[in-house]
Predict the 3D structure of the following.
Amino acid sequence: MFYFTIVRHGQTTNNVAKIVQSRTGGELTPLGIEMAKSLGRHLKDEEFTRVFSSDLHRCQQTTENIVSQLNKKPDTIQYTPMIRERDYGDWEFLSTEIEVKKRLEMNLPDNKKHHVDIPNGETYEDCKKRAGQFFSEILKIIDGAAENEGENILRI
């Protein structure tokens, strides 16, 4: 069997302050740390064969706090820029209201809000391409597994 679990990082100080943060490390709040530990306790009996995490600090903190609660630690934890959030370029550290205003100016519906153009940022299409490359790597792992082997992958 193959399992793939996707987790978002815990609450950060910038999440609380409603500040855009994408390519910078960030810091989990005490609640964010507890969120990760709580999820780890919930997943404690899972035997993850691999963990992939963004290399950004907030994701590393989330990973460490989840893994610290697992009964069996995964053999492989890989931190990679491939699964970072979309780079918000010049909007980094601005109020999250910027995206809302721009989306309204562009008359984008909620389901298309990520199509907004960001000065000196990553395009939505480039972000999708990068995510697709990561999922292609996951499929290679699955395709390369022996018939009697399974994978239980956690992605943070």
Remarks:
- The CA atoms of residues 6 and 114 lie 20 Å apart.
- The chain is about 35% helix and 15% strand.
- The longest strand covers residues 2-6.
